[in-house]
Amino acid sequence: MNVTSNSYQVSIEADPTLPIIRITRDFDATPAQLMRAHTDPELFARWVGPNGMETKIVDWDATTGGRWRYVAGRDGEEYGFHGCFHEVGQDRIVQTFTFDGQPDGVALETLQFEDLGDGRTRLHAQSLVDSFEGRDQWLASGMETGVDEGYAKLDALLAALR
Amino acid sequence: MVARLAVGDATVGELAHPYDVSVQAVSKHIKVLIDAGLVSQSKDAQRRPCHLEAEVFDLMTKWIERYRQQAQERYDRLDVVLAEMRSDEQPTHRRNRQQGAAS
Predict the structure, then answer these.
(1) Boundaries of CATH 3.30.530.20 in chain A?
(2) Which one, A138, A149, B53, B60, has least CB within 10 Å?
(3) Which residues of A84-97 are buried (b: 16+ CB within 10 A; e: fewer)?
(4) pLDDT for res B34
């Protein structure tokens, strides 16, 4: 499904000592282009996904102190997300992220666009949540249905720990 | 805690350390994990490190891989958008020329 013949790979790290997920990925684009793809609502809606879902931007003010809200939908089912833009800088975005289905949960996301020169940029995306349980649920979310016994067991476990 | 144990065996004291919780609270959580068969605790002497069973370790690995895959799909879509932006920009000379001048 890759569009370019050699698609850059995502690397991911779940920090063992902090409830943080880090993602790194290179792009054939300048930091300014990457920034535009993250802040222009029409461009953003085209790639944010998830796969097979249509994203509708409801609210969008990609400036420091602004806010955002979008709804991802498929087959009549809708999932809303919202947050605030804490900082929109030259090569950095700091924002909060909440899934409407879990209104008490909030992640602090920091996106950094590192200029590699020659029209390439490395994205560093860091998400900090408020607990390891929250992070593990987040990692587990979006798993295929048909959860096997192990997943069910762990769900029960996470419920017991809450 | 599961994430910490995925990295390596640890004592209850070590598990309690990064959290603002008591060793007693962690012990209680560990007991739930042991009862569920997800963690075992070795019997030797004082240290008694907790060990994550392979099944859970695999689960964490699967979660992370699945999450990575979603990010991969998302950013492959972003590649398409960026490629379009580049072709839109080409006629006008808006490209950043920081590196290009040297060659």
Answers:
(1) 11-130
(2) A149
(3) bbeebeeeebbbeb
(4) 81
Say if CB B80 and CB A7 are below 8 A apart.
no
CATH number of this structure's domain B2-53, picked from the four choices 3.30.1490.20, 1.20.120.450, 3.30.70.980, 1.10.10.10: 1.10.10.10
Model pTM score: 0.69
A-facing residues of B in 56-85 (CB < 8 A) are 56, 58-60, 62-64, 66-68, 70-83, 85
Contact A37 B82 (CB under 8 A): yes
Report CB contact under 8 Å: A32, B32: no
* pLDDT tens for the 103 residues of chain B, in order: 776 777 778 888 888 887 777 888 888 888 877 877 778 888 766 778 888 777 777 777 777 888 888 899 999 999 999 999 988 877 655 454 444 444 4
Answer yes or no: are the C-beta atoms of A33 and A113 closer than 8 Å.
no
pLDDT at A150: 40
| pLDDT tens digits, A60-111 | 999 999 999 999 988 888 889 999 999 999 999 999 999 898 888 899 999 9
Separation CA A35–CA A47 (nearest Å): 13
Q: Is the separation of the CB atoms in B88 and A43 below 8 Å? A: no
Contact call for residues B86 and A33 (beta carbons, < 8 A): yes
Which residues in chain B are contacts of A132 at CB distance < 8 A?
Answer: 1-4
pLDDT, residue B45, reads 64
Q: Which of A126, A13, A125 is nearest to B61 (CA)?
A: A13
The domain made up of A11-130 has a fold known as: Alpha-D-Glucose-1,6-Bisphosphate; Chain A, domain 4 (3.30.530)
